[in-house]
Design brief:
alpha/beta, Indigoidine synthase fold, ten-stranded mixed beta sheet, 11 helices, about 50% helix, binds pseudouridine-5'-monophosphate, binds manganese (II) ion
Amino acid sequence: MEKIVALESTVIAHGLPRPLNVQVAQQLENLVRQRGCEPKTIAIIEGQIRVGLTLDELVQLGMRDDVMKVGVAEIAIALAKKAWAATTVSATMRIATMDNIEVFATGGIGGVHEIQKWDVSQDLVELSRTRMIVVSAGPKSLLDLRSTIEMLETLQVTVLGYRTNKMPAFYVREVDVPVQRIDSVSEIVEIYLEKCKSNLPGSVLVFNPIPAEYEINEELLSEWDRRAKEELKRSRIEGKAVTPFLLAKLAEISNGRTVRSNIELLKNNVSLACDIVNELARRRGSL
Ligand code: PSU
Ligand code: MN
């Protein structure tokens, strides 16, 4: 069994500031290699689906101005246009599963937006459809967290809190929303293997809290969130541009603190994903 960790590209192209984004993309890939696994960053390059990018492609993806942001619904548009496109969690999962990849590390998943009624991320639908282990630090507190967790349940996604029974929410380690706690990588793998055995659909979504030293104080964050949302209203930005806009605003308002936290939680998730892949390989008896 190849020990592969899938990585998404929207966080690179639209989630982090240049040129740091390119460095982070490389750092994450290197971290996977150091852990004895193989990174596959997923994107669309000139209308071609790619599982694993060259360094030059990674750099261009981070630096070009014409990179689309695609969920599953928009994959075909990017292909038909022969465009460059960064894949969100939903599109990354869909493409990864075509290649039989079972583990995917990301930063934040999309969810139910608070600002715009019915703005519900395609990520939730794909998590419901595709059986895979997805490691995330949780949805951002800018989203409607309660509605997001309720939607995940409705959609039959297996949600686990890694060493926590309270939902992690990206920049904060926990919020007051209960989740099923698990304490070990072997438990995660066991649950996933049971899903495979019983042919149950949908992902095992592991919420991995941001490392404590990079957590952002909840009160401070809610003030930053409020200001970012205010600016969003004024800007009249909609749809796919909402999340990138809010991330850039938070980075500005926080003087880069949210960016640093974002990078550290990404590394933390990649690291846990590697542990999961290694355990999965061990369980399948190939080591
Ligand atoms: N949350 C972040 N950073 C990100 C994203 C979410 O903190 O980069 C990206 C992920 O790729 C996620 C996507 O899948 O945004 C969700 O976008 P939308 O809300 O438009 O579905
Ligand atoms: Mn949306």
